[in-house]
Design goal:
CATH architecture: Alpha-Beta Complex
CATH class: Alpha Beta
Radius of gyration: 17 Å
Shape: globular
Strand content: 15-25%
Number of strands: 11
Number of domains: 1
Helix content: 25-40%
Order of helices and strands: EEHEHEEEHEHEHEHHHHEE
Largest sheet: 7 strands, mixed
Structural class: alpha/beta
Number of helices: 9
Distance between the termini: 28 Å
């Protein structure tokens, strides 16, 4: 029996140039793009349209009828003239049945880095278990962490490790895990030995660069939301070239 092959890239830029990516990719941006995408779909949004620049977002919103909501951030803060920022708490009843043109500093770039994959799922702690359920039986998957300003992100690495820990069910030797996957799994397992409830994970995310950035701009409450495992049991799936994020079938 062939062992499933799992590659984990701690940054989109670490995907080798010209590499043939796996049929399925999992993009992780815990603080906060993939957390917010799950929150939006759980709140009933029709879907999200991820774009890489603010200018592209504004131009696209003007072209679409009915006009979609604009959501996203730069340097963690809401963008002037946008309807929504990047806090999962703000994606509530106001997004029900609405499309959202969405741009973030790191997350949307990581999503677009996976254009070569047939299927792209978005994962975070808030939808960890349901994403793992979608991966059962697959034989090759790439995990892509979004990063924080080009730096390897503690929060995304821990989430990748948690995903691998749950997915491999304590038997990683039955899988072909690359060094990135082994490092992520080891990081999660070493930290999880000290698990004393949800506050443990909140504290770890606060220590990350992304967590410190959110604290500095007064959005520390989003760290607690992002650390709530399985809070939004939906699987956002990005479809390319349609460039739409919707609930996975």
């Amino acid at each position: 029996m062939n062992r499933p092959v799992i590659n984990t890239y701690f940054l989109p830029d670490l995907i080798p140039a010209g590499a043939t990516m796996a049929p399925t990719a999992v993009v992780i941006d815990v603080l906060r793009a993939t957390t917010t995408a799950a929150a939006a779909l759980a709140a009933g949004a029709a879907g999200l349209i991820p774009v890489e620049t603010v200018e592209e977002a504004r131009a696209l919103a003007e072209q679409l009828t009915p006009r979609p909501l604009l959501g996203g951030e730069r340097q963690g803060l809401p963008i002037s003239g946008f309807d929504l920022g990047n806090s999962p708490a703000s994606y509530d009843d106001r997004v029900r049945d609405r499309w959202i043109v969405f741009t973030t500093t790191n997350g949307t770039r990581a999503i677009h880095a996976c254009r070569g994959c047939r299927r792209v799922l978005l994962a975070a702690f808030v939808n960890l278990s349901v994403v793992v359920d979608r991966l059962v039986g697959l034989d090759r998957v790439d995990i892509v962490c979004a990063g924080t300003g080009g730096r390897i992100p503690l929060e995304d690495v821990l989430c990748a490790g948690a995903l691998l820990d749950l997915w491999t069910d304590g038997e990683p030797d039955n899988w072909q895990l690359d060094d990135g996957s082994l490092l992520a799994l080891d990081a999660w397992q070493r930290h999880a030995r000290h698990w004393t409830g949800r506050t443990w994970l909140v504290d770890r995310l606060r220590l990350s660069q992304g967590g410190r950035n959110l604290t500095e701009i007064g959005q520390e409450a989003d760290i607690e939301l992002a650390a709530t495992i399985d809070a939004h049991p939906v699987v956002p799936e990005w479809h390319w070239p349609a460039n739409r994020i919707v609930r996975a079938d």
